[in-house]
Amino acid sequence: MRSVPMLRAAAVAAILAVRCHPALCAVYYVSPSGSDAADGLSWASAKRSIAAAAAAAQYRDQVWVAAGAYTGPVMLKSGVAIYGGFAGHETSRDERDISANPVILTVPGPAPAVYIYAGASVFTRLDGVRISGCGGEGIRTGDGSATIRDCEITGNAGAGIVFFGGAHLVSGCRVTGNGGPGLDCAYGAGPYVTECTVSGNAGGGVVCSGGSMPFLDRCYLRDNAGGGILCSEWSSATVRCCVITGSNGPGVSCEDGPGLSLVNNTVAGNQGAGLLLGSGTTAINNIVAFNGSGISVAAGGEPPVLLHNCVYGNAAGDYIGTGPAPGDVRADPRFADRSSWDVRILPSSPCRDAGYDPAASEIMADIDGGPRRKGSAVDIGAYEVDGAIPAVSSIPELRAAPPGTPAEGVRGIVSAAWPRVFYLQKEDRACGIRVELAGHALQAGDRAAVSGTSGLTAAGEPCLFAASAVREGASSVSALAAAGRDLLPGRALSPAGLLVRVAGRVTRSVPAQGAFTVDDGSGLRDAQGYPGVRVHCGALTPPPAGSFVLVTGACSCEQAAGGLVPLLLPRTAQDIVPVSP
Ligand SMILES: [Ca+2]
Q: Where does residue 257 rank: exposed (0-12), middle (13-18), buried (19+ CB within 10 A)?
């Protein structure tokens, strides 16, 4: 009978082309209760160090590591796979649980905690290991095609991962808070990096030199010092569906690397330029917003290919050395939460369905893993937004909704009505809204249900552009007594849209304009700078300047130099009552 070693020798003789049968490959076990003097071939005879097991393992062998703290350094040979996440009794690799059974490797340095030898085959793997608090680099690779999966490389003094050439695969890893770059690509390295987070690294997020060209797919690059992606020495990158935020340098800088391709990324809140581009680069379907500057193109060479980017709100200018390109969106992308740089776009975003489809034809998933194309076209940015915009059905929601939000069955009491416009307010007078609908048949005091779309009037007043308004009965409406200062738009208790009543002295009267200004002494100024609140009375006769009046009207607004100011719209002559001071 042939011995297992003989079979192994036969298998080794046939390697490189033929996969080793799993039964013929050894598993080396590592546990905090083990000993490096043991053979490591069972949990009961586990080795104590990952380094010793990795040294004993041969091509296509595996190293299974139980939860615990380890030191090294670990030298990873071609074809050896290290798996963390075991409790220390498992018989199948499927039973491991990386989060429940953390394997933590800490090496004092200066050597890298894990060194992957040059020439690593595709069977070379580091999986489910946390490399933390090391004095040097987390991982250093030579040339080859190793897999680094579900690892956490955090808080090491040097770089997170250094790629010295090779085409390694990095998937599902967190590379955070390291003293050097998160990912350092040199000597023509072209790692494929997918679904990783690279954040808070002191030497930049992804740094490329020596003609390197990583492929970054669905990664988060956040808060990296110096920049998100920094390419020099004819390096470049292919970057798809990534989020690049919060660096104190540029989002992406690549001034001398032709071949840089940026498709469907969101680059926001970086202190430097969003994109700093050189000759021969491509940027399509990206959001570049709220950075120090927007898209900045270096002088000379072939101009970059720019299409369908959303470029908005960049402090020192949206375009520097270039200009708006076909398909560009120059409006607020409407992030879910700018304060925390949650850069998912809202359903009402102008980036929705505004991308260039052919550029995204090979992209299957957005950064959340959902379908890359929903609706009539791909969205601009890293996220594809879902379904229809949910409708609002109350006046407060309507006032807060972005323009274009559908409104269904918004109910209230009509407080003022003209042929094309009426005001609708909540029964408790908490808030109201202007409604525009030609030919409506409503009058003050009617209860109504209104449907349409939210928007702003030319004067900037929130408004429901209605498609229908249905009378549902009668009620009564009374005005809210208000001081002029209460009418300032934007105040928490702003009565904008409500029927209000103001008393004061007429400081200006312009019958030709059908307008006057009434001042109750609260220090407000109208759009022309006269003290008080402007009243637009239309065909009604305005009271003379110097007289005292009590005015009831819908609280609208108009544009002034410093922003919106209130404007009162009385309904009938009975709404303007002379009073004795
Ligand atoms: Ca879409």
A: buried
> pLDDT tens digits, residue range 334-391?
998 898 999 999 888 999 999 999 999 999 999 999 999 998 899 999 999 976 677 8
Question: Which alpha helices (DSSP H) does 191-276 contain, by range?
Answer: none
CA atoms of 400 and 462, how far apart (whole Å)? 9
> How much distance in Å is there from the Cα of 355 to the middle of ligand 1?
8
Strand partners, 199: 176, 222
**Structural domain boundaries of the chain?**
1-217, 242-388, 395-474, 480-578
Beta strands 62-66 and 68-70, pairing class: unpaired
480-578 matches 395-474 in CATH topology: yes
- The amino acid at 293: S
Q: How far is the CA of 275 from the centre of ligand 1 (A)?
A: 23
Give residue 307 CA to ligand 1 midpoint distance, Å.
16
Q: Give residue-wise pLDDT tens across range 291-348.
A: 999 999 988 888 999 999 999 999 999 999 999 999 999 999 999 889 899 999 988 8
Q: Which CATH number is 1-217's, of 2.160.20.10, 1.20.1560.10, 3.30.465.10, 2.30.30.520?
A: 2.160.20.10
Chain Cα centroid distance, residue 330: 17
Residues 6 or more apart whose CB falls under 8 angstroms from that of 491 comprise none
> Bridge-partner residues for 553, per DSSP?
500
C-alpha of residue 313 to centroid of ligand 1, in Å? 23
Kind of pairing between the strands at 206-208 and 229-231: parallel
Ligand 1 centre to CA of 372 (Å) is 8
The architecture that CATH gives domain 395-474 is: Beta Barrel (2.40)
In degrees rounded to 5, what are phi and psi of residue 9? -60, -40
Beta-strand relationship, 432-436 and 421-425? antiparallel
Length of the chain: 581
pLDDT for the residue numbered 19: 45
Q: What is the DSSP string of 260-272?
A: -EEES-EEES-SS
- Distance between CA atoms of residues 430 and 396, nearest Å: 9
**Cβ pair 454, 403 in contact under 8 A:** yes
414-464 per-position pLDDT tens digit: 999 999 999 999 988 888 999 999 999 999 999 999 999 998 898 888 899
Instruction: Report the candidate in 194, 346, 335 with the shortest Cα–Cα distance to residue 268.
Output: 335
Å from CA of 374 to ligand 1 middle: 4
Q: Tell me, what amino acid is at 417?
A: A
The residues facing 515 across adjacent strands are: 510, 536
Alpha carbon distance, N-terminus to C-terminus of the chain = 118
Taking the centre of ligand 1 as the mean of its atom positions, its distance from the CA of residue 375, in whole angstroms, is 4
Residues 504, 437: Cα–Cα separation, whole Å: 33
Q: Quote the tokens at residue 579.
A: 């009073």
Going from the Cα of 347 to the center of ligand 1, the distance in angstroms, rounded, reads 10
Per DSSP, what are the bridge partners of residue 411?
449
**CATH says 480-578 is which class?**
mainly beta
Per the omega criterion (within 30 degrees of 0), is the bond before 110 cis? yes
Helices first, then strands: H and E counts in the chain: 3, 48
